[in-house]
Protein: Serine/threonine-protein phosphatase 4 regulatory subunit 3
Organism: Triplophysa tibetana
Amino acid sequence: MTDTRRRVKVYTLNEDRQWDDRGTGHVSSAYVERLKGTSLLVRAESDGSLLLESKINPNTAYQKQQDTLIVWSEAENYDLALSFQEKAGCDEIWEKICQVQGKDPSVDITQELIDESEEERFDDMSSPGLELPPCELSRLENEGYIRKLLELFRVCEDLENREGLHHLYDVIKGIFLLNRTALFEVMFSEECIMDVIGCLEFDPSLPQPRRHREFLTTTARFKEVIPISDPELRQKIHQTYRVQYIQDMVLPTPSVFEENMLSTLHSFIFFNKVEIVGMLQDDEKFLTELFAQLTDEATDDDKRHELVNFLKEFCAFSQTLQPQNRDAFFKTLSNMGILPALEVILGMDDVLVRGAATDIFSYLVEYNPSMVREFVMQESLQNDDDILLINLIIEHMICDTDPELGGAVQLMGLLRTLVDPENMLATANKTEKTEFLSFFYKHCMHVLSAPLLANTTEEIPSKDDFQTCQLLALIVELLTFCVEHHTYHIKNYIINKDILRRVLVLTASRHAFLALCALRFMRKIIGLKDEFYNRYIMRNFLFEPVVKAFLNNGSRYNLINSAIIEMFEYVRVDVKSLTAHIIENYWKALEDVDYVQTFKGLKLRYEQQRERQDNPKLDSMRSILRNHRFRRDARTLEDEEEMWFNTDEEDLEDGEAVVPPSDKIKSDEDLMDPISKFMERKKLKESEEVSKEVLTGKSSLSGRQSPSFKLSFSSSPKASLSSPPTASLHPGSPGSPSSPGTGARSSSPTAAVTTKGAQVGLVDYSDDDEEDDDEEDVDSKEESPPLSKKSKLSS
């Protein structure tokens, strides 16, 4: 079994004066030849690697702390520490260190560092002086040293001995930095704490002493809004206030080396607050009286203000509790009726009281939103919508008088927490999400959206001042959150109340942040790719205000410009139905925008969609061919294309099509399978019936005349002139009848036939649509071939 006595963690002090864990291992001491002395060795328990190798120097000051910690400095700025799992292991290593340095193991530090100037001063002292007792913490705690120091303080203060008072300031500050709970218990006792504060008034660095005691005794007043009968509780409250005052106001700001030396003071305050909350929570008589006076209409405003502030501070103290204790705390407040009390307080006219009540409500929502949701749903069964707690919160948000809407922002955050499905519970018998969202959209959503509906009755906002716009921005942001997280309920509300049209009115606001909120709302809706939303947008022509905002923005390169272009780009890539709607209704307004390719891309995607709609047989033939397709080897395609581009057009005889040499040695029976023969007969039959321009190619295969291929192109001039006839009969060349691009533009339900060896490949790839788009765009720019070329290939 592993020896846990020697198990340690190795720590080093970093530049930020924080201890970094270097690993866990087992420590030993041994003579190291390389270091010429006894050294401390720590090997990692995981792989046995050496974590630490430190020679025990005779002059290094080693310090033993808290029975399981040894700390020392290797260099000026390199501190090390070993934290032992067991005290016995720490004692063994400490004895070894003391043995090397010739010290008594009972000491806690092996070296006392004294400056030379101090040594000389001590040597020069001729008189024997006083014999001081050993400087030990136990003497400070047990022999009344602190009380004697405070008696000395009162004497110095009476004699106005400023030098003595300055020395006492340094002594008391040094005792604080010892960071010992037992010393704090003495210093913060009822009979000592005011004298301790008095000592700290005489800072030698200040020309005049501070007047902290005068403030605490005359200015600061303790108000018992409800009489506290427990004297211990009252004393604990006084003590906590004064110690907090010492920490925040009296003690100087700790330096970088002292900031961790007051951790015990923080802990002292923390545990005091925990005790106060526990004692008040257990006093049922006190809490019952508190809530009775809060909700009593006869209570005057000043008294109610004090009661609410007390309850607010009470809840703030609860944040220091452990989770299980906090559960019990809020459960106690809920049983006492804190939510009905808050509802009464929020209905009052006093702004300060309402502000404190809002802070209390935020503690409840952050802790347990389900408790608040359950209360408001039960409340709706008995009360009208106007006096529901959640509607009171919405009304206070809407009526916030702060020009910066600080309170409204806080309340909006609480509403978002309440309607967030992520923190809603779901059980076998009850689904909180369904129940609460149904309640919210039935009883509360009309209150939330009322300012939006009232301000967007025309094509421009009725009020466009900064405060109104800020409020509308908050409302639209919450609606955007609902679009993302509430699918069914918000969709019905938006479509039935025509909310999107009203929100898009805000794009005409002179405040850019509000226009951007409106655009984000629409972008979130489009991003859902929901056809219900898309049909609603198309039916009501809701892209019109967006296009207007884009055109009114002009050539300015700003957030509005970027947001609108990104929206159209998303539609181009992902939403086909909206693509057609935009081009058919707004193309004339957008066709001149050429500094981005988004709108031309929309037009191109629209034309491709129309072309597929106009040629339904083509799609059905493609689906047939997909079941029989063969992929040609990429290297063969590259070789054939290279041969095509290297062929000189002048070398071709009239009427001769270019065929790769490897294909000329094959007979047409070897090349054609039954499907391709059927397609040939079908093409010949169609060419006799349709009186359109027909290109007929002749080719010589093994000295025999091959069957003629007649391909009729679409009547669209763009399609008929998309590629030079010279390339039209080459199998595998871009834009030829055998390529997927031309097949997509052909009005005849034929497929291209490409040959490779004795195999016939019917090529129709599912990913060729994008390539077709590029080819069509490029080919449409080519000029029609000269007449001489046409005549060369006509028969």
User: Anything to note?
Assistant: DSSP finds 39 helices and 13 strands in the chain.
